[in-house]
Amino acid sequence: xxxxxxxxxxxxxxxxAGSFGxxxxxxxxxxxxxxxxxxVLIFFGKGVLSDLLDNRKQxxxxxxxxSEELREGAVEQLEKARTRLRKVEIDADQFRVNGxxxxxxEKLNLIDSTYKTLEQLENYKNETINFxxxxxxxxxxxxxxxxALQGALGTLNSCLNSELHLxxxxxxxxxxxxxxxxxx
Length: 184
Description:
Layout: H1 2-9, H2 26-159, H3 162-183
């Protein structure tokens, strides 16, 4: 037993071949230790490592599957958004066309109503001018008639004597009486 404990404490080369102990020669024991460790790891860790790798593989596959599903969902949403965008663009174009046609229609209606108003104003102007012309011509007629009547009366008064004057008045009264009977 003393050899065993001495070999733990000894830093020199291995003691005799018949004793048990640690070999502290790193270069000589490294390959043996590595192959033993690898053998043990492969034998016992093969299942664990295989399970770890299978779990990792499954997680990666699930992540890929989820990513594909998300991508498909995103593609569907993108297509829906594009469809909505096309619809909105079509609606906007329709509103724009309708707006332009509505503006044109309102412009034409305004022009038509303006022409009608101008036409009515022209008619009112012409009617006013005709009325004023008739009024002026009536005034001129009355004035001419009054002047002619005054001139005729002046001439009659200067030319007529009393007897002729009475006869003319009687004749005119008779004509007026006959006209009154015809109108009644």
